[in-house]
Amino acid sequence: MKQYLKYIKPYLVSFVVGPLLMIVEVLGEVLMPYFMSLIINEGVANRNVSYIVGIGLTMVLTAFIMMAGGIGGAYFGAKGAISFAADVRRDVFLKIQKFSFANIDKFSTGSLVTRLTNDITQMQNLVNMALRMMLRAPGMLIGAIIMAFGMNPRLALVILVVGPLLALAIFCIVRVAFPRFDIMQKKLDFVNSGIQEALTNVRVIKSFVRGNYEEEKFSRANDDLKEASLNAFRVMILMMPVMTLAMNLTVLAVVWFGGKQVIAGEMLVGDLTAFITYITQILMSLMMLSMVLLQSSRAIASARRVQEVLNETIDLTDDQARYKNLEVRRGKIEFKNVSFRYYKDNHEKVLENISFVANPGEIVGIIGSTGCGKTSLVQMIPRLYDADEGEVLVDDVNVREYSLYHLRNGVGMVLQKNVLFSGTIEENLLWGDEKASEDVLSAAARAAQAEDFINSFIDGYDTELGQGGVNVSGGQKQRLCIARALLKKPKILILDDSTSAVDTATESRIRESFSTSLKDTTKVIIAQRITSVMDADRILVMDEGKIVGEGKHMELLKSCEAYQEIYYSQMDKEAS
Ligand code: CTP
Ligand code: MG
To answer: Does the beta carbon of 371 sit less than 6 angstroms from any atom of ligand 1?
Structure first.
């Protein structure tokens, strides 16, 4: 928890002044009953009006000072808590941005959202509560006890009986509630993950008519959360009535014993009324303390979950970067005996002993059955994942020795499942190069065969895209993604099945434009269709994580069985 101290530091003023101002309010609260007793004992008993007015005015003044203290305390409390939470949120967000794919795989997106929102809110609530109650509750407790004992030590003994009993009751309630809130938070995580997945994939759900299934899944998670919450709050609802009961019984006891003393002339009536107020204050402060305790149990669970994110070791870093300023210049790619698995504990290798060289400017085609490891292979180049064994070299330098920034800047990648962002087409393309002029923009669009359809939209480049690019067709989206990658003017361009939704004629035009506009760029093209890679300078044929053939189209057709198989199956289909 120590690591959160640094978030308090910038707001130290709020964290100190807030509680101090609350002390002002407490002092008033403790003095008020005393003033009251003076009015009754001295003023009323002796019919001394000027005395009553004097004390009365003092009370009015005290009330205003109390209000000022209360307002100030609440203000600084809120300010401190809100600023604290905002800073934590910012850091958690920045950390998540640095996450590697492997890190993200570990936490679910839903869980990350819960941590960023609900968990941090819990922490904010605790800080806010602590700032207001931290000094106030103990201050009130101690102040009231001192006043009560000072007034009538014998009667104050009642507190010694009730106080510990009540403390015990509160302790039991909080202890039972503690773990229940923990469970509640986990269920909330589950509901959020469900919402996240269902909302991002609402189209798929609808097309598979899985709406009912999803609804059921959601209501189950939601019911679970409801049960868990009820379970926790069922204990909590005991708190107030138990407190009230204790309060009433205590007041009764005080009136009973105190009344006797008043009748016997051992106690003044004003003291009795003040005494009752002090007893109430003592119980109130115990209740406040228990509330803080309870909130802290929830917040500590949340703080731990936030800490998990903050302390996650990012497994892809610049630590080994020996050449921090080196940029990718030529675009040579070399794999030396690379092996890789996604799950490090006794899972099968996804890539095994991959070795090949691609020279600058070459077109490298990669082909192979689905799941054979094509995407995994190319992800090693911009270090989306790191190889477990062997080396991946770009321009004869191990990719780990580049800074991630320069390496990824030199490698343009159109992912298999790529997305566009909400905003205009132009804004999306500018991701590739913020400073691109209109000419450069349209040249890239032209090369990706996207210019025609962009211009066919009424708003052209200013057409607004929905989130994820929902309002363009699959093939149009792919072409926009290619144009975006082209604008980076990468030395290495990777297209992972990026023309699968584009018709063959358009696709061959894209290939043609590459051979003129991207002459020096090394192009790695993953494809399902042999026609997409037929002209490549080098074709890698993959099967179950291994390269089983390498060469030009005609060579492979003669020598590589796996390639022949793919070729003839596709030719047959075309012929029939
Ligand atoms: N895989 C995995 N975890 C991931 C991604 C993939 O375990 N996060 C596994 C897949 O189950 C698959 C293997 O890794 O068995 C190779 O996946 P991939 O490289 O994505 O296969 P591709 O050849 O790209 O398949 P496709 O043609 O379908 O894109
Ligand atoms: Mg793939």
So the answer is: yes
**Residue 570 class from Cβ within 10 Å (0-12 exposed, 13-18 middle, 19+ buried)?**
middle
Q: Which ligand is nearest to the CA of 370?
A: 1
Nearest CA to ligand 1 atom 11: 371
Residue 110's Cα: distance from chain center in Å?
8
Residue linked to tokens 């191990």: 398
Burial of residue 496, with CB atoms counted within 10 A of its CB: 0-12 exposed, 13-18 middle, 19 or more buried: buried
- Which 8-state DSSP code applies to residue 11? G
CB 418 within 8 A of CB 469: no
Q: What is the position in ligand 1's atom list of the atom closest to the CA of 101?
A: 8
* Span 190-205, average pLDDT: 78
Measured in whole angstroms, how far is the alpha carbon of residue 44 from the centre of its chain? Answer: 63
Q: Which pLDDT does position 346 carry in this prediction?
A: 67
Tokens of 224: 């679970």
Q: Is the CB of 373 under 6 A from ligand 1?
A: yes
104 CB less than 6 Å from ligand 1? no
Question: What is the pLDDT at residue 576?
Answer: 65
Q: Please state the atom number of ligand 1 nearest to the C-alpha of residue 374.
A: 23
Query: Quick one: which atom of ligand 1 is closest to the CA of 379?
Result: 19
User: In 77-116, which positions are buried (b, 16+ CB within 10 angstroms) versus exposed (e)?
Assistant: bbbbbebbbebbbebbeebbeebbebbeeebbebbbbbbb
Tell me the CA–centroid distance for residue 146 and ligand 1, in Å: 72
The answer to whether 537 touches 364, Cβ cutoff 8 Å, is yes
* Residue of 304, 40, 279, 51 lying closest to 189 (CA atoms): 304
428: its two tokens: 């999306």
Q: Which two tokens stand for residue 201?
A: 């994939």
Question: Which candidate, 436, 449, 426, places its Cα nearest to that of 489?
Answer: 436
Write out the two tokens for 296. 């802290």
Q: Indicate the top mutation candidate among 346, 349, 366, 372 to test ligand 1's pocket, ranked by most ligand atoms within 8 A of CB.
A: 372
Q: Rounded to the nearest 5 degrees, what angle is found at the Cα of 146, between the Cα atoms of 140 and 152?
A: 130
Q: Which ligand is nearest to the CA of 495?
A: 2
Beta strand pairing call for 522-526 and 363-368: parallel
In whole angstroms, how far apart are CA 137 and each of 51, 142, 144, 300? 32, 9, 11, 20
Model-level pTM? Answer: 0.75
Q: In this predicted model, what pLDDT tens digit does every residue of 532-545 receive, in sequence order? A: 898 899 999 999 99
Residues 555 and 541 sit within 8 Å (Cβ to Cβ): no
Nearest to 114 by CA among 197, 191, 178, 170: 191
> How many CA within 13 A on the CB side of residue 439?
0
Instruction: Give the Cβ contact number of residue 495 at 10 Å.
Output: 26
Residue 1 DSSP symbol:
-
Residue with tokens 């890679």: 533
Banded pLDDT at 188 (limits 50, 70, 90): confident
Give me 46's structure tokens. Answer: 């002796």
Q: 160: how many CB neighbours lie within 10 A of its CB?
A: 11
pLDDT at 214 > cutoff 90? no
